[in-house]
Write a structure and sequence with these properties.
The chain is an alpha/beta fold. It has a domain of about 70 residues: Ribosomal Protein L15, Chain: K, domain 2. The chain is about 15% helix and about 15% strand. The chain contains four helices and six strands. A three-stranded parallel beta sheet has the order 1-3-5. A three-stranded parallel beta sheet has the order 2-4-6. The longest helix has 9 residues. The termini are far apart.
Length: about 150
């Protein structure tokens, strides 16, 4: 019966580790199969980042810089009046918190009301910004808009 301690890999299933740099007689002595000189013969070979181009000025430096990031930019989450008309009851006061409760924005987001869609109900809408068409539609429906900071 075969015991665990008797088990061995099948002949040819394993390979001896190549021991390089162990003398001329081994066939892998002196330069250890790496050839003479150059980057590929040195230790640390092939550890260059993918953007390294061998000392040539890399692409990211050859291409000109464009534009800038405005550090004071204010980003708004857009909400259309048509969506407000569908989701809310007539006469409600709409604030960013109310919009967040319906999943239209996050509570911390700045909200901009846009004028896409029809507005048939009367609302008091408080938001951080309004488009011109949204203001007109809110007033036309008999509602009010108010900018909050």
């Amino acid at each position: 019966m075969v015991e665990l301690h008797d088990l061995q890999p099948h002949w040819g299933a394993t390979k001896e580790k190549k021991r390089v740099g162990r003398g001329i007689g081994s066939g892998h002595g002196k330069t250890a199969g790496r050839g003479h000189k150059g980057q590929k013969s040195r230790s640390g070979d092939r550890k260059m980042p993918p953007y390294f181009e061998g000392g040539q000025t890399p692409l990211y430096m050859r291409i000109p810089k464009r534009g800038f990031k405005n550090p004071t930019r204010k980003e708004y989450t857009p909400v259309n009046v048509g969506v407000i008309d569908k989701l809310f009851e007539d006469g409600m006061e709409i604030t960013p918190e109310v919009l967040a409760s319906k999943g239209l924005c996050d509570e911390k987001d700045r909200v901009k009301i846009l004028g896409d869609g029809e507005l048939t109900k009367k609302f008091v809408i408080k938001a951080h910004a309004f488009s011109k068409s949204a203001k007109e539609k809110i007033e036309k429906a008999g509602g009010k808009w108010e900018i909050i900071s």
